[in-house]
Amino acid sequence: MTEPVETRAQRKERTRQALLDRALELHADRSFASVSLREVARAAGIVPTAFYRHFASMDELGVALAEDSMRVLRRMLRDARRTPSTKNAQASLEILVRQVRAHEAEFRFVVHERYGGVPEVRRAIATELRLFVSELTIDLGRLPALADWDVEDLEMAADLIVQAMLAAVADLLDVTRPGSADERAVILRAEKQLRLVMLGIGGWKPAHT
User: Fold this and answer.
1) What dihedral do alpha carbons 101, 102, 108, 110 form, nearest 10°?
2) In this model, does residue 111 exceed pLDDT 50?
3) Under CATH, which architecture does the 57-203 domain have?
């Protein structure tokens, strides 16, 4: 059987993805700011001038990496935040652990470059995080127990949940042996943090009440 011929668009997309993947690999042991265009092009098997057919600059590639990586984080957080309560903290963290182990390079990029040296990448990550908080704020506002909360209070609670999850991601990335006692300790600490946040939400009295 004759194999289907790859179209020009498919080749271009494959090369673009190769550039993103190789950039993530090169980023594994250093900052994104120190990764050069020539290194990425060479690792992807193209000449440096061909890089510009896909990205205008390394900054643009970094923003694409941030957006792709944050999409992974968004899926994880959406699964984890569907029913905020003290009862689902463990289930939420199980989702988190699976996602982190399946996409370590992407999560490492977000954690390291959130405060990294490339302003465009920092802004892209910050924008996505604000979007997460906004989405979670809406979800929290739909809960009957929080129906009379001000938006400011809902945003504060949403931000606490997102920050707790990000802290857990960073701690998990520092664990070198999945399934180890160190990983279990990280999960237990994160679960307690989430439970405290949820309990605090339950006991908080809005300022106008």
Assistant:
1) -130
2) yes
3) Orthogonal Bundle (1.10)
- Residue 88: pLDDT band with limits 50, 70, 90: low
For residue 116, how far is the Cα from the chain centroid?
A: 15
pLDDT of 141 over the 70 cut:
yes
SS3 category, 36: coil
pLDDT for residue 105: 93
Q: Specify the residue for token string 């006692």.
A: 181
Rg (CA), the chain: 20
Half-sphere exposure in the Cβ direction for 121 (13 Å, CA)? 24
Whether 86 has a pLDDT exceeding 50, the answer reads no
From CA 131, how far away is CA 77, in angstroms rounded?
12
Query: Is residue 208's pLDDT more than 80?
Result: no
The whole-angstrom separation of Cα 11 and Cα 122 is 30
CATH code linked to domain 1-55 = 1.10.10.60
Query: Domain-by-domain residue ranges, the chain?
Result: 1-55, 57-203
Q: Cβ distance 105 to 25 under 8 Å?
A: yes
